């Protein structure tokens, strides 16, 4: 029964989707981004399990390559991260910390990014105050000390100033927006009050805007994984993962037939279909129904009908010779770019990769 199956598929003994995570591509992307801000240190954002790629392998590969500042959302994520990297690397946790998190932060040498004056007051009231960072809100109106409160922040923290000051761009996806330069100006102004602190401003999109946005430490996330805004001329990023699903069955349908739940797609010519093991139960969005695509040997195979929980059907008519049970169709990778698939599904690369569930086996190469 296994005859004709790809060797790696037979070895896995499982008709399940997989994400081949390309650690060397992630490291190469980190270096590419670092080269855009040569006077700054390039950190790495590895929150949400390194955007679904696996925090321990990704962080340890980046650490080996020389990365020494890592960012997560939660102190707990930082504690998990710490086991994968050396003691000499800094870890910052964007979502802040309560005084009750102080022991975990201390034990794992994690610097929480405090996001409001009340949280900073609580932190400063701790015995033997652990290092902390402060987020300044320069326009997002989401997290951070507001510009009009910076003087109060400075006075409040005079005895034990923050070790790190950061802010976050509203629309770095669109380099033409005036808000970027406005935020940059506000950040410079706020940061000048904390001369001893490291300054950090640029996510991936900020790094693509160049050295002015780099400050001391940059915080690229999505670009490490091959996604993010359109790239400037001459800059290339590689896929962080290849998401693949094995073909379970191949069949031919006749004009007038439909496929999948709700019969949302009717064929007008005879077509060859392949049904693959991947679905919204794996985090692949249902909104890709009749819109997303796969690739089989470099040939585009559109998703036809609805994405269901465990299955997707693709039209393999053009790739009929390659469509065999056990062959893998690509849904994210060099042939189906992350942001292209995301756009088709009405979302962004961030959501697509962070949404991938536990049933998607991560394989590291
Ligand atoms: C997630 C996050 C980043 C990384 O942003 P990308 O767009 O993925 O590069 C940087 N800074 C903050 C505060 C974040 O929350």
TrEMBL record:
Provide this UniProt record's keywords sorted from A to Z.
Isomerase, Pyridoxal phosphate
Residues at the catalytic site: 47 (proton acceptor), 261 (proton acceptor)
Q: Which residues bind substrate?
A: 142, 309
- Please provide, alphabetically and separated by semicolons, the GO molecular function terms listed in this UniProt record: alanine racemase activity; pyridoxal phosphate binding
- Which CDD domains does the record associate with it? PLPDE_III_AR
Domain Alanine racemase C-terminal stretches: 240-365
Q: What residues bear N6-(pyridoxal phosphate)lysine in this entry?
A: 47
Q: What is its EC number?
A: 5.1.1.1
SUPFAM superfamilies recorded: Alanine racemase C-terminal domain-like (SSF50621), PLP-binding barrel (SSF51419)
Keyword Isomerase attributed: yes
Name the InterPro entries for this protein: Ala_racemase (IPR000821), Ala_racemase/Decarboxylase_C (IPR009006), Ala_racemase_C (IPR011079), Ala_racemase_N (IPR001608), Ala_racemase_pyridoxalP-BS (IPR020622), PLP-binding_barrel (IPR029066)
What processes does the entry annotate via GO biological process terms?
Answer: D-alanine biosynthetic process
On whether Isomerase is a keyword of this UniProt record, the answer is yes
Which cofactors, by name?
pyridoxal 5'-phosphate
Any one GO CC term of this protein is:
cytosol
User: What reaction(s) does this enzyme catalyze?
Assistant: L-alanine = D-alanine
To which pathway does this protein belong? Amino-acid biosynthesis; D-alanine biosynthesis; D-alanine from L-alanine: step 1/1
What's the family? Belongs to the alanine racemase family.
Record's function text = Catalyzes the interconversion of L-alanine and D-alanine. May also act on other amino acids.
Q: What is this protein called?
A: Alanine racemase
């Amino acid at each position: 029964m296994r005859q004709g199956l790809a060797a790696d598929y037979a070895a896995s003994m499982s008709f399940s989707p997989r994400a081949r995570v390309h650690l060397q591509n992630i490291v190469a992307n980190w270096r590419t981004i670092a080269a855009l801000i040569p006077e700054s240190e390039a950190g790495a954002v590895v929150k949400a399990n390194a955007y679904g790629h696996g925090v321990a392998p990704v962080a340890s590969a980046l650490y080996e390559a020389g990365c020494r500042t890592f960012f997560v959302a939660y102190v707990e994520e930082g504690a998990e991260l710490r086991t994968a990297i050396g003691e000499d690397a800094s870890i910052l946790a964007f979502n802040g910390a309560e005084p009750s998190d102080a022991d975990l932060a201390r034990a794992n040498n994690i610097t929480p990014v405090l996001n409001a004056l009340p949280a900073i007051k609580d932190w400063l009231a701790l015995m033997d105050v652990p290092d902390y960072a402060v987020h300044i809100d320069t326009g997002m109106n989401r997290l951070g000390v507001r510009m009009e409160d910076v003087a109060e922040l400075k006075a409040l923290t005079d005895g034990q100033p923050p070790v790190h000051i950061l802010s976050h761009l509203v629309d770095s996806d669109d380099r033409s927006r005036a808000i970027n330069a406005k935020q940059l100006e506000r950040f410079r102004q706020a940061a000048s009050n904390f001369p001893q602190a490291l300054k950090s401003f640029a996510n991936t999109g900020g790094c693509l805007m160049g050295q002015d946005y780099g400050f001391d430490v940059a915080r690229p996330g999505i670009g490490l994984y091959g996604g993010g805004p359109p790239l400037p001329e001459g800059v290339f990023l590689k896929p962080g993962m290849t998401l693949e699903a094995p073909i379970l069955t191949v069949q031919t349908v006749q004009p007038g037939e439909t496929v999948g739940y709700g019969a949302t797609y009717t064929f007008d010519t005879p077509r060859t279909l392949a049904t693959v093991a991947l679905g919204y139960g794996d985090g692949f969005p249902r909104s890709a129904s009749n819109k997303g695509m796969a690739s089989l040997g470099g040939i585009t195979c559109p998703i036809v009908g609805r994405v269901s929980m465990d299955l997707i059907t693709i039209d393999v008519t053009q790739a009929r010779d390659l469509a065999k049970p056990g062959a893998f169709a690509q849904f994210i990778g060099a042939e189906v770019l992350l942001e292209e698939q995301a756009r088709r599904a009405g979302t962004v690369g961030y959501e697509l990769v962070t949404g991938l569930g536990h049933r998607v086996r991560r394989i590291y190469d």
